[in-house]
């Protein structure tokens, strides 16, 4: 997907436009009560223009996720997953959502840091 954002005024510096390309692929396999899934995500370099900003080199990021599920019944499943985000030196992708101002005003303290997450749970459909 290609995302494009526009902010009309950044601290009185004028309009800013941000463009970024993203790719996300998921594969899933189920056999009996077992299910495994792998996912891969890629975010391209940030393209910035206006308000005194230029492109942000080395702002790519990659994410890989592995998931295992075990179905206890047709409506209940236990699952576990692990995920890893690898950032370029100017990227700050993390778990959650960050506003455009963190990207463009360089306020985020985790720029270039990688993140790892683990999760487990139960899904029950009513």
Q: What does this entry look like structurally?
A:
There is one protein chain. The chain is built from one helix and seven strands; from the N terminus they run E-E-E-E-E-E-H-E. It has one helix at 100-105; strands spanning 2-7, 16-31, 34-43, 47-49, 61-71, 76-87, 115-124. Strands 1, 2, 3, 4, 5, 6 and 7 form a seven-stranded antiparallel β-sheet that branches. Helices cover 5% and strands 54% of the residues.
* Structural class by secondary-structure content: mainly beta
For the termini, the CA-CA separation is 33 Å
Spans of at least 5 consecutive residues with low confidence: none
- The total tally of domains equals 1
The secondary-structure element order is EEEEEEHE
Rg (CA only): 19 Å
Largest sheet: 7 strands, antiparallel
Mean pLDDT: 85
The percent of residues in helical segments reads: under 10%
Strand residue content? over 45%
The helix count comes to 1
Give the strand tally: 7
What shape does the CA trace take?
elongated
Layout of helices and strands:
Blueprint: E1 2-7, E2 16-31, E3 34-43, E4 47-49, E5 61-71, E6 76-87, H1 100-105, E7 115-124
Antiparallel strand pairs: 1-2, 2-3, 2-4, 3-5, 5-6, 6-7
